[in-house]
Design goal:
about 250 residues; alpha+beta; five-stranded antiparallel beta sheet; about 40% strand
Length: about 250
Amino acid sequence: MENQSRVFAAILPAAGRESVDNEAEHGLEVRAANRHSNRGREVQVTGTAEVCCPADRAAVRVSVGSSKESVNEATDSVSRRLEYILQAVRQHGVSDKDASVRRFLHREAEQYRMDAEVVVTFSDLEKMEQVCRVLVEKLDKSVCVGTPQYYHSAECLNRLRRRACVSAVENAQQKACEVSQLLGQTLGPPLLIREEETKEWRSEDDEDGGGGQGAAALPHLPCRPTFTASSRVSVSFSLRDKSRKKL
């Protein structure tokens, strides 16, 4: 996570405020509010934060097929394997709503061909690996287990966006606190919080960056994409003089 901030401070006299525009070289700008403004002393901070998260969902396609001289033979052959596949999925805690089945019967020359496909969505990626291993070991060549397709759920993306915004605000508050201490002030409550910019991008790189020996030894290992969200916020805090006694 990379955090940055830009700080603007306004240390205003109690009366007779005049407009000034004085920018320092290190990102700190001290300026007075407009003479018609009723706002008191404040510090304005712009903070940014960036958070990332690997995919939390995976979809796996499992297909089976059979060619027989009769429809019943082709159907029975596929149905037995389908039942085993669905049973293995249920035994690993996957609900029926996360598994869909499609069947297709057609004629090939003098035989009947039955093809079926099961698409299973996993939220537990460790169980996904276990199910794939069981199917390959038990059904061998009579089943085709596809490469997992990783993706981010809507819930995961929403949590990530919120985390980026909250982290940016926390970073801004920390910087504002340090600035207020430097100026001999006490940081008051926030006056305004505004999210000014958000960015999102998806990376298909391997989790280890693709530079490790493991990536070279397993060229067919499916990568787990990472989604990154960044947020830039502007926050204004009131300032109180440390010498002023609290009521």
